[in-house]
Amino acid sequence: MCYRCKSFQSVKRNEICRIPGCSVSPSAPGTPTPVRLPQFQGETFKQFINYVYTGKIVLQDNGVFEMLTLAQELGVDDLQNSCEEHVTSTMSVLNACTFLAAAIDIQDRASTGGKGAKSFVDRCVSFIGENAAKCVKTNSFLNLPKESLIKLISSDCLALEEEDVWRAVVNWAKFHAGVVQRTAHWTEEERARVCQHLSGVINHVRLLLIDSQVFAEEVEPTGAVPIEMSLERYRYAALPNKFKEMSDDQRLQPRVMLKFFSGSHILSQDKTHLQRVLNQWYGGVKQCWRLVYRASTDGFSAESFHRHCDGISPTYVLVLGVNGWLCGGFSDVPWGKSHTKSAYMVS
């Protein structure tokens, strides 16, 4: 234990290692002292002990974050690295939602706040956001706990139109309610069960952005939306300019769609939200852009740049520095020798 666990290496033989969140029960002299770790599952700790003595472990998707947190708290670096590598190398459309639920669960239970799990929560949300159209069709999405679903659909980077966010949420609620019929064929009991699961969830769907026809044909018939919210939706449709004054209202902010800057490696993961910022600066929140030049593949020379970009406008130029800083510029005239007072640099 002392060899593998850094948390034990500075503990004297007559001391009890106080792991964060543990409890130590008194015991008679000469008998083992019980040290309880209620935040971890017994089966997980058995696997951990087996790793300590054998150096071998088989990691499971739904338990990897609990093992990761245990490895962090006890200072087992090799096991921590194995857990991180497992998540990084195996995350896919099929299991990303399973990873998300497991990471959120251990983040809530971990005594230290689950700092390691939190970074993976963000990573899972980012991955699912980028692959949302496929992820919401998986069984792992349907099996998400409500808390995990809310975390996901609260993200600005969920690459779905709001109508599709609603449809995914309804499918999730139907799955948990055991309802298979279409909305028009629900019984009152089925409607009540679906609405019960949607309670607390629909507040995170940006209903004001849903198309009016879809709202009337798919949203209202569920009976899940309070009348006050429906009235506000119709007021927004009738007076959109008035609502523009509420620019800080999250319900009026379109989600960032990866198709806005299709092919961009820079505006992805933790920088995906910048797509919306650039479109707001441009003046079209749903403007789609195409990639015309990437220095890392097309060449870093000025000749290569102009060969790909001359004659094209408007354009954004994005540059990612070695330290992670992002800078760039905008031009509304074709590349060449022309100049414009409207061009500016951003960073």
Question: Can I get a quick summary?
Answer:
This is BTB/POZ domain-containing protein 19. It is flat, with a radius of gyration of 26 Å.
Average pLDDT metric: 83
How many helices?
17
- What's the main sheet like? 3 strands, antiparallel
Q: Count of DSSP E strands? A: 7
State the helicity in percent bands.
Answer: 40-55%
Work out the radius of gyration.
26 Å
Quick one: overall form?
Answer: flat
Spans of at least 5 consecutive residues whose pLDDT stays below 50 are none
Instruction: Name the helix and strand elements from N-terminus to C-terminus, one letter apiece.
Output: HEEHHHHHHHHHHHHHEHEHHEEE
Spatial gap, N to C terminus = 49 Å
**Helical/strand content category:** mainly alpha
Bin the strand percentage.
5-15%
* Widest sheet, order of strands: 5-6-7
InterPro entries: BACK, BTB-POZ/Galectin-3-binding, BTB/POZ_dom, SKP1/BTB/POZ_sf, TLDc_dom
Organism: Sipha flava (yellow sugarcane aphid)
Protein name: BTB/POZ domain-containing protein 19
Domain TLDc: 265-347
Task: Please outline the helices and strands.
Layout: H1 6-9, E1 23-24, E2 35-36, H2 42-54, H3 64-74, H4 77-90, H5 96-109, H6 115-130, H7 132-135, H8 139-142, H9 146-153, H10 162-177, H11 188-198, H12 212-219, H13 227-238, H14 240-243, E3 261-262, H15 274-282, E4 289-290, H16 295-298, H17 302-309, E5 315-320, E6 326-331, E7 344-346
Parallel strand pairs: 3-4
Antiparallel strand pairs: 1-2, 5-6, 6-7
Helix pairs in contact: 3-4, 3-5, 3-6, 5-6, 10-11
